[in-house]
């Protein structure tokens, strides 16, 4: 018997909306349980959400045998993968591309957090139960371990960060291929792969009930725009003070937005409560999916980038064989850093250590491992 709870969920009722009659004709930006709607807006969004649920049901029924594949794809599209996988891989091929990937990943994920706090998007896995629309016909869907993310759903962070980061990779690769071959067809191949990868990530997010289709589309287009814009403004060789100031500004900016929403009477943690309420298993709720985890990751990575460029301006120059060795050891180092268990209580300690963990990511990739490889290989050449 399947041990995952399917979508046959108990009916829940929304709290009353006392202000609904006093503000007819206006839309106030508040979470779903206190939002005020224009006539017809609620029905339109319900139709969009409902079609999204049936699409997820169809995907799960038709591609059930590919579930493991979709889980792998959704992990590849995780914003965390941009820091731990894409960044080291690109850095040891092209230092500038690697720095650009880290820069774009941090800023795009931070902006995604801001958008989510402002847009209050639903997620399919909790909307099925909260909507009260599926009493007579329950969709035949199930959750998986990656379903229960705790932030609001719009726009999709996986789609947005992947679109931004992978644009850096494919545009660099496309330019390189054209400079070597002068073939438009060959240089266009990375862009075709880019579209395929984004489609795969988007489908995987719909499959696991983490996002509705329109959230994936919004994230993809927003990420594409950010990738194009941010890749032209890479903070190379900036002083450490720039990165320290940027990290502080992003941290304080997010905290001020959070405090401002609280002052307006908005329960910013509304999505966390719904995720805990409707997730099939309590252990699938992870602290690293909370909005403040994304914030500390982004600020830590940017400060770490500044420190790495401060310790070793320009980075280490390595031939191709030592670069491959450095990539292998960097990947191993990041794997173990990522797996370091962090205390979940108090949460302030967790966020502080999470911040330090991502400060270490650029140090490992840009300074420590390549420096060690350079030392060993240079010594062998002398011998």
Automatic annotation (TrEMBL):
The chain crosses the membrane at residues 100-120, 159-179, 191-210, 216-234, 241-261, 349-373. Pfam families: PAP2. Substrate binds at residues 123, 205. It is an enzyme of class 3 (hydrolase). It comes from the Eukaryota. InterPro entries: Glucose-6-phosphatase (IPR016275), PAP2/HPO (IPR000326), PAP2/HPO_sf (IPR036938). The active site is at 158 (proton donor), 211 (nucleophile). Its EC number is 3.1.3.9. It is a multi-pass membrane protein. Belongs to the glucose-6-phosphatase family. This is Glucose-6-phosphatase 3. It comes from Amphiprion ocellaris (Clown anemonefish).
